[in-house]
Design a protein that fits this description.
- This protein is α+β, with helices and mostly antiparallel strands and 409 residues long.
- The chain contains seven helices and 16 strands.
- It folds into two domains: 161 residues, Jelly Rolls; 202 residues, no CATH class.
- The radius of gyration is 32 Å and the shape is elongated.
- The relative contact order is 0.24.
Length: 409
């Protein structure tokens, strides 16, 4: 065309098929969401400040996340520990006749074959805090059973008051700093760790929610996985001849204990000074760090393919295909520090490319999750991220032609 049609108030300006490449940055803060509609900072939608048109690509430029998360939480299904007392202490075996010890023994024998469940507090632990927490929680689980027996079966108020002074205190958990492993012991009764129990699978199902897609996991299947156990029953060994478990590098649980972390209480000895104690060492080192990565999903922008934990089903047993997820996430964020802190980073390679360019982007649906599908629990702590939009701005055709009117001299 050499001339435009100017008989209209809206002349068409031809596109030059030339574009200016432009970067537009958008800062997103989790606290800017509609908190009433989206109470969780891990799963929400947010309206952008303007329409972003002709978007060629989107990239996560930088971010700031709080390291104030719970490694151990009910939603992660890793706060409960199942164990059994297989051979409860019997005072008559050691010529003892203490009525309270007899009542405690009767309660544990009545509960024999059933699982005790110790549930720790949600949060983040160092190894020594975990050892102390487990000691107290395991004893509390047994205490609850004994209290119920004395109250409802024996109906003996005097024994109950006497028992409640100290409760059950025979379980001891110690952390070996050199080997970085936990040791579990009982001063008077044989026990086992029920790591193969169906309780862990059942508990995981009970913790499922409609909004959370959680995958089976062989590495983080419950609290024992973090404590250094595999999914097999762990059975302790009994001391022989009064030779009790010991850490030889120094003090174990209390200063000056010379490494002896598990010795019997004098009231349990009766006339036998060689009462056995029972101990076991977790086969693997303790792991209290939790997930090392989490993923950001943005609906319509995911560009990372992701494998998922192996599960035994008809598909995996009859084909050689993968059960991975295509375009499952937009970004993968490393967790570089432990609570309580804040970390910043800006190294992220994956880019979502649109071909042809996205006509318009105005709203984002964001989800922050772990690899197993469970949402990251930020609580009331906020985070922010900066998105880089690569935009193509169409340019108007600028070439023109001139002519001389016939009436012009």
């Amino acid at each position: 065309m050499s001339r435009f049609n100017v008989s209209t108030n809206h002349p068409l300006i031809p596109n030059a098929n030339e574009y200016m490449y432009e970067k537009q940055f958008v800062s997103i803060h989790s606290e800017d969401r509609n908190v009433i509609k989206f109470p969780s900072a891990s799963d929400f939608e947010i309206e952008l400040p303007q329409d972003y048109c002709n978007v060629r690509g989107v990239k996560l430029d930088n971010w700031s996340f709080p390291s104030n998360y719970y490694v151990f939480s009910n939603s992660q299904n890793n706060i409960s520990l199942a164990f059994e007392i297989t051979v409860p202490y019997n005072p008559s075996d050691y010529m003892g006749n203490d009525p309270l010890l007899t009542a405690m023994s009767d309660a544990m024998w009545a509960y024999k074959g059933k699982q005790y469940i110790a549930t720790i507090e949600e949060g983040f632990y160092n190894p020594f805090q975990m050892a102390t927490e487990l000691t107290n929680r395991m004893n509390a689980a047994v205490t609850s059973v004994i209290v119920n027996y004395i109250k409802n079966v024996l109906n003996n108020t005097t024994l109950l008051q006497q028992f409640m002074i100290n409760g059950y205190d025979q379980f001891v958990v110690a952390y070996n700093e050199v080997g970085q492993k936990l040791w579990f012991g009982n001063k008077s009764s044989a026990f086992l760790m029920s790591n193969s129990s169906s309780f862990y699978a059942t508990n995981a199902l009970n913790n499922e929610s409609c909004s959370k897609q959680s995958y089976p996991d062989f590495s983080n299947w419950g609290l024992p996985a973090y404590l250094g156990f595999s999914r097999v029953v762990a059975i302790p060994t009994a001391s022989v001849g009064g030779v009790y478990p010991r850490f030889f590098y120094g003090s174990a649980n209390t200063p000056g204990d010379n490494g002896f972390w598990l010795i019997p209480d004098s009231q349990y000895l009766g006339t036998n000074v060689n009462i056995p104690v029972y101990s076991l060492e977790a086969p693997f080192r303790i792991n209290l760090m939790g997930n090392s990565y989490f993923y950001i999903e943005i609906e319509g922008m995911n560009n990372i393919d992701e494998t998922i934990p192996f599960s035994i089903n008809n598909f995996t047993s009859t084909t050689n295909g993968t059960t991975g997820v295509v375009k499952s996430a937009f970004a993968k964020i490393p967790v570089t520090t432990t609570p309580i802190s804040q970390w910043y980073d800006n190294y992220q390679n994956p880019v979502k490319i649109y071909n042809p360019p996205a006509e318009r982007i105005r709203k984002l649906k964001i989800k922050v999750r772990y690899h197993n599908g469970s949402l990251v629990d930020f609580g009331t702590t906020n985070y922010s991220m900066l998105l880089e939009f690569s935009i193509l701005r169409p340019q108007n055709k600028r070439d023109y032609s001139s002519f001389k009117p016939e009436s012009y001299d």
